[in-house]
Amino acid sequence: MPQSSPTAAEAWQLTAERASEAALFFDFDGVLAPVEDDPDAVQPVPAVMASLEALAGAVSRVAIVSARPVSFLRDRFAALQHVDLYGLYGLEVLHEGEIVTVPAAEPWVPVMEELAGRARAELPAGTLVEFKRLSVALHYRTNPDQGPTIERWGREQAERLGLKVQGGRMVVELKPPVDQDKGMVIGEAVKELGCAWYFGDDMSDIKAFDALRAREAVDPKFMGMCVAVANPETGAEVSNAADLTLDSPHAVADFLAGALPAFAR
Ligand SMILES: O=P(O)(O)OC[C@H]1O[C@H](O[C@H]2O[C@H](CO)[C@@H](O)[C@H](O)[C@H]2O)[C@H](O)[C@@H](O)[C@@H]1O
């Protein structure tokens, strides 16, 4: 944790004072939703919904920045009118009700289809192959012993097809070789802001933390708050990069509800 980090209460107060130039960004899995064996079964913590919508009305912007497709996020957050959605590490964004894809990624859809089929045929039984149109995630949460085999297979395929590899919690994901990640999404989004928070739990979220640090470095008046959500899989790496750590998605819900009074006028 950086020496000069404000306390959470101080940071919320400052965010409320600068509400018109403040934004809050959230990862999805492990942050707004508890981790489960079946990725399709995951739902956000119910208590988080009202806080997200209330905060979206209080600050300049609230957005979810996830590795999930936007269509998945839109289903889960249909009740929220004012929360922006970035999917597939920013390869997709929901813009005026339409899912917009980074054009350079589109030609990779057939490659990903072929890869998902090959993964289902070649990987050990019990491997969960999640086809996300523009990426393929190979999950080994329910058969961790096969993790090294699945990781190795994924890296070989990435080399064969010229894809990027993204590690995660009991998963290896293959993505198109397109320059886009959570750090780039956040770096772009905070250019004109006075303060921003990012809540993350996984390796890909560290790039988003770095983007807030980079913004602080060029503008010392900018306040970036990096919040880690603890988990046994990424261990200390994410927490060490954060200003503060919360215990679970349920703790995130409590933390956000506790912040709302700072925005009451
Ligand atoms: O960027 P995120 O929203 O955090 O997405 C990261 C990955 O989340 C999902 O996988 C993780 O959560 C699953 C459901 O709880 C869990 O079973 C799995 O072990 C985790 O890695 C999602 O399925 C992946 O596609 C995302 O890349």
From TrEMBL:
<dbReference type="InterPro" id="IPR036412">
    <property type="entry name" value="HAD-like_sf"/>
</dbReference>
<comment type="function">
    <text>Removes the phosphate from trehalose 6-phosphate to produce free trehalose.</text>
</comment>
<dbReference type="InterPro" id="IPR044651">
    <property type="entry name" value="OTSB-like"/>
</dbReference>
<protein>
    <recommendedName>
        <fullName>Trehalose 6-phosphate phosphatase</fullName>
        <ecNumber>3.1.3.12</ecNumber>
    </recommendedName>
</protein>
<keyword id="KW-0460">Magnesium</keyword>
<comment type="similarity">
    <text>Belongs to the trehalose phosphatase family.</text>
</comment>
<dbReference type="GO" id="GO:0004805">
    <property type="term" value="F:trehalose-phosphatase activity"/>
</dbReference>
<keyword id="KW-0378">Hydrolase</keyword>
<comment type="pathway">
    <text>Glycan biosynthesis; trehalose biosynthesis.</text>
</comment>
<dbReference type="Pfam" id="PF02358">
    <property type="entry name" value="Trehalose_PPase"/>
</dbReference>
<keyword id="KW-0479">Metal-binding</keyword>
<dbReference type="InterPro" id="IPR003337">
    <property type="entry name" value="Trehalose_PPase"/>
</dbReference>
<dbReference type="GO" id="GO:0005992">
    <property type="term" value="P:trehalose biosynthetic process"/>
</dbReference>
<dbReference type="InterPro" id="IPR023214">
    <property type="entry name" value="HAD_sf"/>
</dbReference>
<dbReference type="GO" id="GO:0046872">
    <property type="term" value="F:metal ion binding"/>
</dbReference>
